[in-house]
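Subject: for your reference before the review

Hello V.,

The reviewers asked for a structural picture of the protein, and I figured it would be easier to keep everything in one thread rather than splitting it across files. Below is the amino acid sequence we used in the manuscript, unchanged from the supplementary table.
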Amino acid sequence: MPYLVHIALVVRDYDEALAFYVGKLGFVLVEDTYLPEQDKRWVIIKPPGAPSEATTILLARASDEYQAKYVGNQAGGRVFLFLSTDDFARDYAAFTLAGVRWVREPATYNYGTVAAFSDLYGNLWDLIQHH
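And here is what came back from the structure prediction:
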């Protein structure tokens, strides 16, 4: 059965994106391979603790002005990605300490605890712990 392997996240620069996702959020760098024939890198990251078969994020550098205008707004202002945690308080505190900008403070609902943050480009993410 087909399954989702990667989600492309359009970024302005590979290294600044890695500094945020790996440096601040603690994501794991799975692969960073230069492709000279296309003058781009194949950069794959995943959340720490994600199983090897989990869907990963492909950091895709915008290759022209058209793509560049979508950096930071891939979901039209809605939450774009949802990051699940088994310890909301731990990860909320760690992200806050790392300088992550929260756009919606933690709230508890019947399905779990959630807060929204903005990545370095403005894409919105939910940090969520399901109950």
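For the response letter, the relevant points are probably these. Helices lie at 14-24, 65-68, 88-97. The longest helix spans residues 14-24.

Happy to draft the paragraph if you're swamped.

O.
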